[in-house]
Amino acid sequence: MLSEFMRDQCFTTAWFGLMAFVWFGWAQEDPPRRWRIWLGAGAVLGVGLAVAFGVLTAANWDRPTALEGKYAWFGVLVAAEVVAAGAGCFVLARRGAPRWMAWWVAMVVAAHFLPLALLLNDLGVAVVGVVQMIVLGSVVPRLRGTTDPSSRAAGPVMGATLLLGAAISAVITAPGL
After folding, report:
1. Residue 50 needs a FRET pair 20 to 30 A away by CA distance; which of 23, 71, 147, 167 works?
2. For residue 177, what are the CA distances in angstroms to 10, 128, 159, 170, 172?
3. What is the pLDDT of residues 45-92, one digit of tens each?
């Protein structure tokens, strides 16, 4: 989102848009009725940014990337994220607490943005992750006081922060295209 690499900027915008769609979708597992239209609208906006910046990523594919020479580390980071999310969900399921899975996966995703920001040379990615971790931490007391699935809180947090991050990135990127 603050990258000097146009290809990475476009890809991050597209990816954040796509993941906003995914998280707004997960939030629709059991939302309050009044949230449904907003979750749907957020999902549609996320897809729009994903498509637009996916095309721009393809158009800028021959440009340099911050990941040059770091692809193996990127793979290690993604593998660690998947293992941490999966292992945590396994433990939650075994403990009879599957309603916490969305929150756990969200926290793992948010935390992975910190080392990802270093790989991408993009402070904006770290800012998104830090904001997500703070907000996800702040919803824990509310989640403990209910039996609702954690997707009700984690989905909108992740969807909104990713959509906002994608929108900011789009505005920053547009003049350079």
Report:
1. 71
2. 10, 23, 26, 10, 10
3. 999 999 999 999 999 999 999 999 999 999 999 999 999 999 999 999
Given a contact cutoff of 8 angstroms between Cβ atoms, the answer to whether 149 and 29 are in contact is yes
Q: What is the C-alpha separation between 177 and 165, in angstroms, rounded?
A: 18
DSSP 29: T
Nearest residue to 1 (alpha-carbon basis) of 114, 170, 158: 170
Q: State how far the Cα of 76 lies from the Cα of 118, in Å rounded to an integer.
A: 14
* The two structure tokens encoding residue 142: 């509310």
* pTM of the predicted model over 0.90: yes
d(CA 174, CA 158): 24
